[in-house]
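Hi support team,

I'm opening this ticket because the web form for multi-chain structure prediction keeps timing out on my end. I have pasted the exact lines I submitted so you can reproduce it. The total is 224 residues across two entries, so I didn't expect it to be a heavy job. Is there a limit I'm missing, or should I split the entries? Thanks in advance, R.K.
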Amino acid sequence: GAGVSQSPSNKVTEKGKDVELRCDPISGHTALYWYRQSLGQGLEFLIYFQGNSAPDKSGLPSDRFSAERTGGSVSTLTIQRTQQEDSAVYLCASSWGQGNEKLFFGSGTQLSVL
Amino acid sequence: QKEVEQNSGPLSVPEGAIASLNCTYSDRGSQSFFWYRQYSGKSPELIMSIYSNGDKEDGRFTAQLNKASQYVSLLIRDSQPSDSATYLCAGQSGTYKYIFGTGTRLKVLA
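Hello R.K., no limit was hit. The queue was backed up. Here is the completed structure from your submission:
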């Protein structure tokens, strides 16, 4: 695709429910990142995928959060048993995976947990 | 997690003035630094990258890096109201991880 695509753009859920957020990176990009941005805050690193290597999960805030990347392309971020503090914009970014490079961001998923 | 710190602002400057945005980082191993601009409700977009000590200029933007002081800055000359946004500083930690600061909100007053 022309850019990084994320879906849904908005998600409202009830506390305790599971949610899945999807990211479709730019074709050919081997690196894929998930960040979380709470209202008025910066970007909090969650997880990073590079090609077929094991992902860097060091930013995941709890074991309720998990992510996978199938076939080196589309990624899904899953949040189980959502809590109100999970409410934020979840941003996905991709890059060529060569380091020292520009990240291309998707438009994000606004998650609201009631 | 290594930190990148920024003053949250808002930084208010009159139109036509120079806006100076600052960032410090704690990971001495960081080699590359980036400035992203984020308009309200939008995603970040890259405006400058800098890898070596010194200055790097691109149009009205100048990035400055001082690795000894672990300090990065962004100067915006002839500031315009359209420059009003949040500016995020990011450092590359390790091979591929990019750590972002909390951002500085800039307001350019017409």
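A quick check on our side: Residues 14 and 21 of chain B are 15 Å apart (CA to CA). Let us know if the file doesn't open in your viewer.
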